[in-house]
Amino acid sequence: MSQFSIDLPSRLLLSLEPWRNATHWLIAFSGGLDSTVLLHLLAHLAKSESLPPLNAIHIHHGLQAAADAWPQHCQSVCDALGVPLLIERVKVQPGASLERAARNARYAVFGSLTQANDVLLTGQHRDDQAETLLFRLLRGAGVRGLSAMPRQRPMGQGTLIRPLLDVSRAELEAYAQAHQLSWIEDPSNQDRQFSRNYLRHQVMPLLSERWPQAQTSMARSAAHLREAQGLLDELAQIDLTQAATAHDFEWLGLPSLELASLAALSAARQRNALSHWLEPLTRLPDTDHWSGWTDLCDAAPDASPVWRLADGELHRSAGRLWWLSGHWLRTPMIDAEWQIPASALRLADNGRVMFSGQTPVGPLQIRYRQGGEVMHLADRGHRDLKRLLNERAVPGFVRGRLPLLFRGDELLAVANLPGLDGHLQDGWKLHWLPTDEDQGLS
């Protein structure tokens, strides 16, 4: 038995030490070499160590005839090791990349099964890490992409861990042979029309022949890039904290940043901060599409530029950036008059409005701004609504959505704007919740 295979259990145990108190260790078990060795290692460690309960998960994609025999193989392996196995069948959505679609389907199941304080363990190794780095380099990835696969990341309600990223495929093969393990060889892994297979079978052997430590060096570079990405994330948090200033429209419940704080940064820091901010909101733009950010910043001061992204829009208004998506991008329509003034009125694609205090005498109707509206103010006489909105620096995208309360042709109130939102002497105010969620009243 080689030194590598003797040393592997203790190395694995050391790498998993921080997660020894997890509720469950779930092993993503394809039946291939990597996951077979991982499962075998953990099952045997569990005999001498106090580990969380082990459970294996096999995802059956059904993409090829040979795969129909794999669940039975996985079941027999798990039965021999005394590890419970859950077999989940998924339907892979057709698309440009079958690999990506299968991965998305697989990880969707993993996410649904990983509960709070659970750890999902996957078998990717050092060679996989090197291939990932090279693959992403050829696609023009940035620092985040070139940092390759992280050792850990959130998964479902728990955490995904890749404990074998410092282990080579040769070490896994040596362990498997020493313990006479059998595993599945996926025929599709030989199909070199897939980019990863081409790199694995055509490119990596040539690199390793010239530079024997190529995969180790590339995996080390990925680790350096992960560290660099961590520093960029810290810098983004500093810059975003500076830009996350308070404003008068917190009640909109929209992600928002102060533009001046971002504009004071270098172009690279702007992109870094915005990428960090946008990542949970939308698919990030590619390098060429960042010209939209430049156009938004360079637009005339009195303009209301919009940068359209995959899952929403970034608006510039009232000195701030605003992220709009979902119903904020649909034109609101008024369904009917306010039949029962004392209750909340739901507005199509625009939340709801309600009164606090004394309900004004009707009949009442909610309308949206069309232009030319005039409002009578006790201390100022009649004033154009446009001027009143300008005075309060109401963001442009809000103006067509602000609920206006009319009695006949008389504009009684503009929801949520202090001094315009009710009648002081009669003791009532008009409140607008822009979404159907109960955000409370500002």
Short structural summary:
The protein is α+β, with helices and mostly antiparallel strands and 442 residues long.
Question: What do these coordinates show?
Answer:
- This protein is α+β, with helices and mostly antiparallel strands and 442 residues long.
- The chain folds into three domains: 3-211, Rossmann fold (3-Layer(aba) Sandwich), CATH 3.40.50; 244-329, Chorismate Mutase Domain, subunit A (Up-down Bundle), CATH 1.20.59; 345-433, no CATH class.
- It has helices at residues 3-15, 33-48, 70-81, 98-113, 126-138, 143-146, 169-178, 195-210, 214-243, 259-263, 267-278, 291-298, 385-391, 396-399, and strands at 25-28, 54-60, 85-89, 119-121, 152-155, 158-161, 256-258, 306-309, 312-317, 320-324, 345-346, 352-357, 365-367, 374-377, 381-384, 404-407, 410-414, 422-423, 428-433.
- It has a six-stranded mixed β-sheet with strand order 3-2-1-4-6-5, with helices on both faces. A four-stranded antiparallel β-sheet has the order 7-10-9-8.
- Helix 5 (126-138) crosses helix 8 (195-210).
- The radius of gyration is 29 Å and the shape is elongated.
- It starts with a helix and ends in a 9-residue tail after the last strand.
- Mean pLDDT is 89; it is low at 1-5 and 438-442.
